[in-house]
Design a protein that fits this description.
alpha+beta; two-stranded antiparallel ribbon; 5-stranded mixed β-sheet; 2 domains
Amino acid sequence: MISGLLALSLAVVSRGERRDGLRIWAGAMGLESLAWALIAIRGAVPDVASILIANLLMVAAQAMKLAAVYEYRGLPWPRWRCLLPILLMCIVIAGLDYDDFKHRVIYGSLIYAAQMWMLLEILRTDTESQRGRAWWLLFGATATVIPIFALRALAALFGTEEFATLGSTVAPNLIQVLVFVCVIALDILGSLGFILMEKERSDFALRALAMTDFLTKTMNRRAFTERAEQEIAMAQRTGSPLALLMIDIDHFKLINDEHGHAAGDAVLVEVARIIGASVRKQDTLGRYGGEEFGVLLPATDQAGALVLAEKLRSAVESMRYRVGRESVSVTISTGVTVCQATCTTCRSDLNQLLDDADKALYQAKHGGRNCTVVTPAGCAIPLVRTPEFRSG
């Protein structure tokens, strides 16, 4: 009953639009509900319906669940994996005597267990969904069903009692009853897990959209600020240095005025791409506002920050950017501040860290542009002075 209501609810929610496997999963739950209903009324309907058709419906339902997970992953579902169990069940039904209930239970249980194993395999490779809790609910429910069906097959193989179904005139076998109860409960839990996986993925997507700059696809200011607070806290715990680069595109307003905002957007995207390709995986790049970018460099001292800043400056300067039929050159100015491990004050205040980097950037902009200026965030440490860098 519950499974049927869930199937109906999913069908209504996903009606008229693609919902990443929800419609297929709803169809699977509908087939399961019908199969359980036929099993429950065995004796009131012919056995060909309550046993044979019910088994086919159950296998078809599991095949649809496998297809639903593949669609959820955005992958083409393997037809042989989905259709082969249905074909095997047809062979079992056609090849066994009608009253050979024992072997039908054994082979049917093994087919169900194999289908669950295939479902586990595709779930195991879904590392993205593993970030949430719903994946564990679906994976755990599916994994638990496998030994249940295996034990059911062993009980039928070595048992002496008839495995009558729930609605039979013969007293139901206790193992069979427990299997049905457990499988129904786990089916419902697994279906809830799949539904919640859809919700979690939508929540992750909405959060990513809210935290991503729509143009450059880097972190927006809000997300960058949150990450900066996390990195400051990490630096505080580990005692490691933290560097911050504030990068501004020189004469960006002139590009917009002379070539249009579309050209300015293209330059922003390309500069973000160059910076993103040059930083490490553990570094953080974000568009702080307008033509200004921020780069967080955990576990990086002043020397390392200056090397990267010069690398970025040189890479941006050497590029030519297509603007309509013309090409333009772009330079950047960079302000660098570094929280040293010995500093006990600068790492506790994000505003101070940003302010120090902005001051360094201001000096770079008013000192000729296309250069790097470093400010040590209030730490009394020697400054590196080389022809490539300007320090303030």
